[in-house]
Write a structure and sequence with these properties.
The complex is a heterodimer. Chain A is mainly α. Chain A contains 8 helices and no strands. Helices cover 64% and strands 0% of the residues of chain A. The mean pLDDT of chain A is 84. Helices cover 76% and strands 0% of the residues of chain B. The chains are: A mainly alpha, B mainly alpha.
């Protein structure tokens, strides 16, 4: 099977991101979000409101589980498997049986389309973030949303610099867990 | 929070990821738990007294290789199941092969033995405790592997749990083999297989509850 242009482009960005290239990783996430939005919107036509929530949940899951990707594997397969897993999870939680008559096909075309226009997420991730304990919440809020450096955050919160870094990392995992709990 | 804000947040957490992180994580779990299993075997059951002598008997090695073969194949299966979008494919055969081989060996042994001795070949002297003991010895590894899987991304949690059980059971059978006095192939074909099946079933039942992400 010939690899699509999107597969090659995203694969290149992701592999550089996995090696620590933050700019490539950001570009990868942005494009991935567009593809996911189009892919999920087509399958969740009964729940247009859920699409952006699920895009965010998939992004967070792919970020937290990115160590399970190996560069020799087609990226499409990895992305599709995670999106499908999260979609099944959502359908089980939200709709029960009536929803299960379609979207779970084996069509792997996650990168076939792209939709850059984000609708508003219904689930308030910032609200969930606020429920995290301080050791997770403060590092994320200060370094990510307010743009402070790790050193500044450490001074402001009285945490050590390594605790700030660990706090961001663990906090993102805890956030994914909160999402599951909020269903 | 808008999606572009989330993307910015995630992109800023782009610490380099180690290669082969899945195999590494599973390997670490085994490396931590295997000594615990071995210590439990030594304290609770003890090594068989004639261990040195037994090392010259082919069946001693057949029994060890049986456990090793299952553990090895199960490792491949688990690490594939832990990665989204990776198919297990032929690795299932590797898991079935040691079982089929020991069953074949058992059949040959039974058919070539006099009828009145066949029951003894299957039941040995320790059949009452064997399967349970193998399951108990494999328990530390089973728990460690489930913990490792919780940090990975199995999209088929029942299968992943079962495969983790096979890995723990195969390794547990190897450890238990250093104690076990039974060497007949029919005995291994029944009770070792049963001992490994216990964590496999437990994993299939626990997986869907525990391995959500």
């Amino acid at each position: 099977m010939a690899k699509s242009e999107a597969e090659l482009r995203l694969h290149g960005l992701f592999v550089r991101g996995l090696a620590g290239d933050a700019a490539a990783y950001r570009s990868f996430l942005e494009q991935l979000a567009s593809h996911l939005r189009a892919f999920l919107a087509r399958r969740l036509f009964g729940w247009p409101d859920e699409v952006e929530d699920l895009v965010q949940e998939c992004l967070l899951a792919m970020h937290n589980q990115r160590h399970t990707y190996q560069p020799d594997q087609p990226l499409t397969a990895w992305v599709h498997a995670i999106a499908r897993y999260k979609m099944i999870d959502l359908l089980r939680a939200r709709a029960g049986r009536e929803a299960l008559h379609d979207p779970l096909d084996d069509d792997l075309a996650v990168f076939a389309e792209s939709a850059t226009e984000a609708s508003d997420a219904r689930r308030d991730l910032a609200g969930l973030l606020a429920t995290l304990p301080d050791r997770h919440r403060l590092p994320i809020v200060h370094t990510r949303l307010e743009g402070l450096s790790v050193a500044e955050t450490a001074r402001l919160t009285g945490m050590s610099e390594s605790a700030v870094k660990v706090g961001v990392h663990r906090g993102l995992k805890a956030l994914a867990q909160k999402i599951r709990g909020s269903r | 929070m808008r999606t572009d804000q989330l993307v910015a947040l995630l992109a800023a957490d782009a610490a380099p990821v180690r290669r082969r992180a899945v195999s590494r994580r599973l390997g670490v779990a085994l490396a931590i738990a295997l000594p615990v299993s071995a210590a439990w075997m030594l304290m609770a059951y003890g090594v068989r007294r004639d261990l040195i002598e037994a090392m010259f008997w082919p069946m001693f090695w057949v029994r060890l290789l049986f456990g090793a073969g299952i553990a090895l194949a199960a490792f491949v299966v688990v690490q594939r199941l832990a990665r989204p979008g990776v198919r297990v494919r032929g690795a299932w055969l590797g898991l079935a092969a040691p079982v089929l081989l020991i069953w074949l060996l058992a059949l040959v042994a039974l058919l070539s033995a006099p009828v009145e001795e066949r029951a003894a070949l299957v039941m040995g002297h320790t059949w009452r405790s064997c399967a349970i003991d193998i399951a108990v010895v494999s328990l530390p590894m089973f728990a460690a592997l489930l913990w490792a899987l919780k940090g990975l991304a199995p999209t088929r949690p029942a299968l992943a749990g079962a495969a983790a059980g096979a890995l723990a059971g195969g390794a547990g059978a190897m450890v238990y083999a250093l104690h076990c006095p039974e060497l007949a192939a029919p005995y291994i074909a029944v009770w070792y297989v049963a001992g490994i099946a216990l964590p496999v079933v437990a994993g299939a039942l626990i997986g869907p509850r525990l391995l959500r992400w």
